[in-house]
Structures are given as C-alpha cells and as structure tokens.
Design goal:
By secondary structure, the protein is an alpha/beta fold. The protein has 15 helices and 13 strands.
Length: 375
C-alpha cells in the first residue's frame, strides 16, 4: 500500500480518484483542493506519489511540481500531472517542472490506476547504480559528445541521489556544461586558482551554480584560460571539498592528458571513455586505453552514435579495440534542438532514445570497492 497525494480543485474528480486508488488500488489517499494545501500536506508527511492538476486557483500545478522537487523530503517522489492541457508544449512544460508523467484529461480510471502502479513499481526498484562515487568522463578526440553524456548522466543521477550530485566542468577552453544546461557560467572555478587559503566545503559552495532540477554545477569560465586552468593541488582540494556535501560527482574532463585530467582520473571511482566510430576517434581511444591501462577495472567504454548512419557497429569496434563496449548511445535527432535551447533530453523528455540510453548506462557505472579518497 502506498500513500498517494492528489491535488485538484475539481472536488468530484478528487472523490472519483480517491475511490479508485483506495478501493481498486488498495492505496492510502490524501486529498487537497489547492496547491498550497497540497504542498503543506506533502511536507507534513511526504507521500509515495503525487497526482497534480495544472489549472488551479492560486498556485498552479507547475509551481507545485517545482516546489516538490526543491524540497529534499519530496525531491525524488514520482509525480503525475493530470490536466486538460494536452499539447506538446504542455507536456514539455510539465516535465521541465519536475513531473515524471503527463496525462491529458479525459483519462479512464483504469488507465490512471495502471500508470500509478507502474510508477510506484519503478520507484520501488533498487537503484541501478550504487549512489556514491566519482565518475570522470573523457575523450582525447573532441566533438564526440562527452559533455552531452556528462550533463545528461549528472541530471539522471542527481534525481536518483535525491539532489546530492554535483557536475564539474574542468575544461580550460570555455567548457560547454553551463551552455548545455542553459545557464550563465558565473560563478565558475577560475577564481579558485587565485585563492591563497585552502578550499573547504563552505568555500566551494560559493562557486556553484544551481540548475532548476536541483543539480549543482562547478562551471568552467566562459573566457578560455591560458595553460591548464586549475593547478593539480587545487583540483584535488576542490574535489575533496565537493565530496563533503555531494556523495556523487560527475566530471567532464578536457580532451588532453595534462595534470588536471590525471588528478581527476586518479581520484575517480569510474572512468568513462567516450568514443564514436569514426577513424580518428578509434585511434584516440586505442591510444587512451594503452596509456590508462593501469586504471584497469575502473574504465568503462561508451560508444556515442552522433550520426544516423554509423560506419561500424559496436561488435566490430570491440574486435578492433580488443575490449568490451559497456554502453551505446543511439543517434537522437532531438539532441540538436536540446543543445540549441539549453534543455538536456534527460531533463525535458526522459522518453527520448538518448535519455533512455543514458539511464541504461547506470548498471555499468557501479563503483568497484570503496570510494577512492582524494589524493
């Protein structure tokens, strides 16, 4: 039996849903006719799932979803938006506000109960990844989609980690993490290099951005820096400080094996090498695997299909590389618009091929052994 909060200003519909969920679903139901009342009840006793109408007097359903996602007690509960607004733009707005599912009215009660039970079953499944660790993403061949995968992966894991993930962009060449998230990279890590004092947990917080999803971001500066950016000791100190508050870090690394990159790799629990099937990427991956062979079981290999027609399938690449490919991200035409608008697909539409593929990577990203200490 689950506790389900239903927020709708239609009293007849409220009672109909209550009867459905209690008598046919066997669930406990809490009703609220206004957004503010629903939020208050959710904070008093967090539900296992929420069903929220959009068009309500006072606080509308979009704001209710945003507030539920901002509060740690309700940040990870499944949310169904049930609304008469059924256009594509309404669905996208609901998902951006934090809803897991957008159901247009009218809907049959049987269909609603089925979707409720599906979301509850999904939420009860053990997480596909053990939350806690540092995941570093790297490709020595630029333009293969490493940042796109890092951004979408961080958004996914942040939701699973109940707002306890942080995404770090260590590129010294105008990194694109903030751009892909639709954010201005200010503050960023550039000022950390000038600090004469140590970098502690409270200090590092002042340099973090907050995405509407709740994901925290240590952005790279917009203006490229000369040299490597942060010195090695500052990188290690920053990662150590971030680990104080964030059990899970996702690091987008520059396409070069300099001191900054090596410091991050040495402190990573999982190293994700991203590649495409073009010859230059294959060559770069072969060389990277050779240089990083000492990292052994920490390395995972991801094939990102950035074009609709790939010259080589994953099986052929495995024979060339003499190692297994741990995941494949399919070409997704929606990614072009996502990049242009600064709205990652995992955030706005988790049912797209790219978003589903990123979610499917999680089992391959299980940390091996205890979390590595910052060194």
């Amino acid at each position: 039996m689950a506790r389900i909060l239903v927020i709708d200003d239609n009293m007849d519909l409220l009672q109909m849903i209550r009867l459905l969920l209690e008598e046919r679903g066997g669930h406990q139901v809490i009703l609220a006719a206004e957004g503010e009342d629903g939020l208050r009840k959710a904070m008093e006793s967090p539900p296992d799932l929420a069903i929220v109408d959009i068009m309500m007097p006072g606080m509308n359903g979009y704001e209710v979803c945003r507030r539920l996602r901002r509060e740690p007690a309700t940040a990870s509960i499944p949310i169904i938006v049930l609304t008469a607004r059924g256009q594509d733009i309404d669905r996208k707005t609901a998902l951006e506000a934090g809803a897991d599912l957008h159901i247009p009215k009218p809907v049959t009660m049987s269909a609603l109960l089925e979707r409720v039970n599906e979301l509850l079953a999904r939420d009860r499944e053990p997480p596909a990844i053990r939350l806690g660790g540092t995941i570093a993403l790297l490709s020595l061949r630029g333009g293969v989609g490493t940042t796109t995968i890092a951004v979408n992966l961080a958004l996914l894991l942040n939701k699973r980690a109940k707002q306890k993930a942080c995404l770090v962009d260590l590129s010294p060449s105008s990194g694109n993490v903030a751009l892909q998230l639709g954010m201005r990279p200010d503050p960023n890590w550039s000022a950390l290099a000038l600090l004469s004092t140590g970098i502690g947990a409270e200090t590092i917080k002042t340099y973090l951005l907050t995405h509407p999803s709740g994901l925290r971001v240590l952005a790279a500066p917009f203006v490229p820096v000369i040299g490597e950016g942060l010195p090695r000791d500052k990188v290690v100190a920053a990662l150590s400080a971030l680990r104080h508050d964030f059990p899970l870090l996702v690091i987008d690394l520059p396409s070069v094996l300099n001191d900054v990159t090596m410091a991050a790799l040495e402190n990573a629990d999982i190293i994700v090498l991203v590649m495409t099937s073009d010859p230059a990427s294959i060559q770069a991956t072969l060389g990277t695997l050779q240089v990083l062979k000492g990292f052994g079981e920490r390395i995972r290999l991801i094939l990102n299909q950035t074009q609709p027609n790939q010259p080589l399938p994953a099986e052929a690449l495995e024979r060339v590389l003499r190692t297994s490919i741990n995941g494949v991200i399919p070409f997704d035409p929606a990614q072009t618009q996502a990049l242009a608008k600064g709205r990652p697909l995992v955030y706005v539409d988790p049912d797209t091929p790219l978003a589903k593929a990123v979610a499917a990577l999680a089992p391959a990203l299980q940390p091996v052994g205890p979390r590595r200490p910052a060194t």
